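Hi,

Apologies if this is the wrong queue. I'm a grad student, and the batch job for Pyridoxal phosphate homeostasis protein from Mesopusillimonas faecipullorum produced an output file that my downstream script rejects. I'm not sure whether the problem is my script or the file. Here is the sequence I used:
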Amino acid sequence: MAQACARAGRPASEVNLLPVSKTFPEPVLREAAALGLHRFAENRPQELRDKSALMADLPLQWVLIGQLQTNKVKDVVRHACEVQSLDRLALAQALDARLQKEGLSMSVLIQVKTSDEPSKAGLLPEDLPDFMRALQGMSSLQVKGLMTLAVLSDDEQAVRACFRKLRECRDRLQQSGFETVSRLSMGMSGDFEIAIEEGATEVRVGSALFGGR
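Support response: The file is valid. Your script probably expects a header line. Output copied below for reference.
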């Protein structure tokens, strides 16, 4: 990460590491916490809920990065500090309603589709401005930035283009008055260096930290 920052002429302090702990058991996460990692990302709401309960004795933060169905919102609101996969209005409404009921607020990142892969979820870049305006009345949701999954490809330029597109989306939103949308969660074990070179403020790394699943 530091080397990628140096190549991009960025301070290493500009980029955070988000360990992706999905499928790894509690002892592995406790070892990671002992080494100083205290913020973990999970794909599945149920796994996030269960690990949060098992490790409640530690001051950990849990982030949901996988797809969230509206019927799972309750667990996520109670156990996660952030959702990085907000991709539709119905989910935003469900999150806001549950947060209001619990007297809570939550930071969220909007997932943006930056490739043509059918398997990739996310809001289309051209729909972002209208989506942001729709969220303005939801006071419990604090939109902090954008998230994406790059195309799965050996073509570095294709991967780089996905990350560049997300940065451009963020820049356009800020120019339109949405200054709080500053974070860019992009890059995983196989492409985090490219993501950093293209402006990532957070990389989501699992297997490069914990080993193969």
